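Recall that a protein's primary structure is simply its ordered list of amino acids. Everything else, from secondary elements to tertiary packing, is in principle encoded there. The following example makes that idea concrete.
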Amino acid sequence: MEKHIVAPLTDEEIRDLTVGDMVFLTGTIYTARDAAHKRMAQTLKEGGKLPFDLTGNVIYYMGPSPAREGKVIGAAGPTTAGRMDSYTPQLLDLGLKGMIGKGRRSKEVHEAIVRNGAVYFAAIGGAGALLSRCITSAEVIAYDDLGTEAIRRLTVKDFPAIVVIDSTGKDLYDEVKPLAQ
């Protein structure tokens, strides 16, 4: 089913999403990859404050290529989500409600998604140039020294993604696996 939702996400919107739904996301999302996740974990360990409020927000696992002249951002394709799995349960417990990436998630992330009523979306890998067209603004808000891995606040319009793990724990990869055998 096709659904249009707005970020930050509400619990009601998340509960309405089902594995396999095609979602078009509009609103504000944040980027963070490996190095940014590691730094956020260290900040939390030291009792510091994160660079943005996680409550209801979505993190897109992406590090863009440089923007071409006249463009907001360069290619903006997803990176492998599993690389953030050791950090993700803590962020979900602190209010993160959605993640966009590609690939499977660990058992611990899966459990944290269900525990917190969150959702994991997949974006199409290899389509970074097309996905960048859905990004209307991009601003580095933290960790500028990390270059492409800095945290960015993005404004997106009709950003396409597929629900891979819904708030009940259904996993699209498990649903399609029997078909591939």
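The mean pLDDT is 94. The first helix runs from residue 11 to 15.
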